[in-house]
Amino acid sequence: MVRDMTEGKPLSLILQFCIPMLVGNLFQQLYNMVDSVVVGRFVGQDALAAVGSTGSISFLVIGFVTGCTSGFAIPVAQTFGAGDYVGMRKHVANSMYLSILISVLLTTLTMIFTRPLLELMNTPENIIDSAYDYIIVIFGGIAVTMLYNILASVLRALGDSKTPLLFLAVASVLNIILDLLFVIGFKLECLGVGFATVIAQAISAVLCLVYIKKRYPILTFTKDELRADKTCSGRLLSVGLPMAFQFSITAVGSIILQTAVNSLGSGIVAAVTIANKIQMIVTQPMETMGVTLATYGGQNLGAGRIDRVKKGISQSLIVILIYSLAAFAVVTLLGEYIAMLFIKPEEMAVMGEVKQFLFCNGMFYPILAILFVLRNSLQGLGFGLLPMMAGVCELVARTAIAFMLVGTFGYTAICFASPAAWVAADILLAVIYFIKMKELTLKFKKA
């Protein structure tokens, strides 16, 4: 079901769109969380560290995929909001062609460079083989990851956040079953959880494709609309690539930081892995609100309703700041108990490091909330390149800490690396946001 977000109460529309997508994103996070829980509980701390040590590399590649597909959906949302359905379908078709090309390129590159990158990151010798087994399977499934993400992004651009949720729920349950089967039944350890994730993702992609074909007549294409179009492709790339590179630039900083984490041993790697898994869950509402604002902003910009854009962003910011404080309370009071899901009772020695990481990061969740709102809002309004520079700020901050402070302050520096990156990004985003909103307001007043 399509949803027009250019009419009605902004906050109500945003929340109605956001909540189903949030549940879907939580299911998606469940993929990775279950992988870690299963290997941590049924294989051991080293296996957990192996899966966790690949997180930054995975973010580099899968983040690029997510950024591309989210960016491709913005022109779709804008043309839909403007009532240009022919143009919308042309953009959808060309986004699929571009997704195929990008999938082939990324799969080829990851097959060649993943092992050397793990070695360059000083991945501990006792976990590097297991880490490679896991991540190479994940990268072998890039095509299905890209397919699901582009289909889900198109549906969200049309205002439908419920359908992707349904298929993710099915895939998440299947992923849990396959994780247990491959790890406990077939003893495949890290390799098994990789296969489970890819198979579950493939099924969610196929279900999404079949549903769109049967239930979305607005996406029935003519031969002319299916033709490759340089103008459409150029517009898609002009938005998608900056968003993709923004993810990747941020990921490069995470890779550099992960290298510093690896130097502290597999025990610290396991602690950071656990803390990051918990943090990804509790910060998901903030990230989802940001993605929602990209769609909301895109549709309303297409309709020429900049007044609604500003109102929706300001109201959403208040809601998400309140949530960020609640999230800090959750990780502070309950983080230790959630962490117990990931490790065997005899391996509780890492719990102190987990609690320290969550507390140091949690204090800065309001800063992270502002980052998600401003960055995604700017992207939804078509400013892809400028928010990418905020990713550069994050990269610089994480790199500086990895090279300058970890040697002196050790694990404590690791705990404050992400908060420093969020602060650096917010400073630039706030300046860009106020300048661009002023420009848009003047532009639509003249029109």
Write down the secondary-structure element order. HHHHHHHHHHHHHHHHH
The total of helices stands at 17
Q: How helix-rich are the residues, as a percent range?
A: over 70%
Number of strands: 0
Compute the separation of the termini in Å.
32 Å
What structural class do you assign from the helix and strand content?
mainly alpha
Principal-axes shape call = globular
Portion in beta strands: under 5%
Short description:
This protein has 447 residues and is an all-alpha fold.
Using brief descriptors, characterize the structure shown.
447 residues, mainly alpha, 0% strand, globular
Layout of helices and strands:
Elements: H1 10-42, H2 45-53, H3 55-81, H4 85-120, H5 128-140, H6 142-157, H7 162-185, H8 189-215, H9 230-262, H10 266-282, H11 284-302, H12 306-339, H13 351-362, H14 365-380, H15 385-404, H16 406-409, H17 411-446
Helix pairs in contact: 1-2, 1-7, 1-8, 1-10, 1-11, 2-5, 2-10, 3-4, 3-6, 3-9, 3-11, 4-5, 4-6, 4-9, 5-8, 6-8, 7-8, 9-15, 10-12, 10-13, 11-12, 11-14, 12-13, 12-14, 13-17, 14-15, 14-17, 15-17
